[in-house]
Amino acid sequence: MVLLVNLLATLGIAAVFPARLRRIDDPCVRALSRVWLLAAVPGAIAVWMPRGPDAVAMTGLYAAAAIALAGCVPLRLARAKATTPHELTLIAALLIPLGAAAAQLADRANGDFGHLTAPELALAAALLHLGAATAAVRAAGNDALRNRSSTSTSTSTSKSTGRAASSPEPPRRLTPVAGAAQ
């Protein structure tokens, strides 16, 4: 079980999350994504180290990067026009690593965090790392779709009217409507 938890945390910290972080279309996030691995690799190594001051110091580097990433949230909110589901996903992707780093710091220090013991903190940190990676995957995917649709919408024209298309076609309903004939 410990092997699986450590493997999940390592993959979340040093592989999946940084790969998707680079794809998020935000100047602050883009700048941090260039140096993320410098802090993420010590954090990933600390997962495999025995609990103690060395592991805490290595996790501290990762926690500093997570704090810097969370610092992008106010800047993003100031630039955002509305709090859309996309924005909330992006904000989650930027804030969840801070919770993961806090849980990992408490775990590596062999301390308790509230009512959670060290093994529970290790599991919480691994799950939060995967949650951050998942949110980053979704946010990066949303940015890619948004950029692709804005490019195609601005350049496409309607064949019948010759005017620019107003918006992409809405998604089709995949589930049957209640009361509809089947």
UniProtKB/TrEMBL annotation:
The keyword Membrane applies. Residues 144-161 have a biased composition (Low complexity). Residues 144-182 are annotated as: Disordered. Keywords: Membrane, Transmembrane, Transmembrane helix. The chain crosses the membrane at residues 55-76, 88-106, 121-140. InterPro entries: YndJ-like (IPR025450). This is Uncharacterized protein. It comes from Yinghuangia aomiensis.
